[in-house]
Automatic annotation (TrEMBL):
The gene is flhD. HAMAP family: FlhD. It is found in: Cytoplasm. Functions in complex with FlhC as a master transcriptional regulator that regulates transcription of several flagellar and non-flagellar operons by binding to their promoter region. Activates expression of class 2 flagellar genes, including fliA, which is a flagellum-specific sigma factor that turns on the class 3 genes. Also regulates genes whose products function in a variety of physiological pathways. NCBIfam families: PRK02909.1-1. This is Flagellar transcriptional regulator FlhD. One of its GO terms (molecular function) is DNA binding. It comes from the Bacteria. It comes from Methyloversatilis universalis (strain ATCC BAA-1314 / DSM 25237 / JCM 13912 / CCUG 52030 / FAM5).
């Protein structure tokens, strides 16, 4: 994939993430903060973004969402085929709760 195509894919991902995050925060703030892994301060900022700000942020050349694949155990639980899926996902959720929230520096 060429650089221009890759940047377009990143912009689309950013836009989808920000729009979904805003919707989640507006519908159930506490659940959204947990699922997104963000602090209350970051949730406030995301919720207050205007459509123009969302588009401007989405145009960044870096991904705005952070995947939680930095924890090998968490990744293993989410992708394991040998265990019962509901048990593995519950265990992964418990481990994710223990991770620090993203905060604005």
């Amino acid at each position: 994939m060429k650089t221009a195509g890759l940047l377009n894919e990143i912009r689309e991902l950013n836009l989808a993430y920000l729009m979904l995050a805003q919707q989640m925060i507006r519908e159930d703030r506490d659940a959204a903060m947990f699922r997104l892994g963000v602090s209350e301060e970051v949730a406030d900022m995301i919720e207050s973004l205007s459509p123009a700000q969302v588009l401007k942020m989405a145009s960044a050349n870096m991904m705005l969402c952070r995947l939680r694949f930095d924890d090998r155990v968490l990744l293993g639980l989410l992708s394991s085929h040998g265990r019962e899926a509901s048990t593995s996902h519950l265990h992964a959720t418990i481990l994710a709760c223990a991770q620090p929230l993203e905060a604005v520096s």
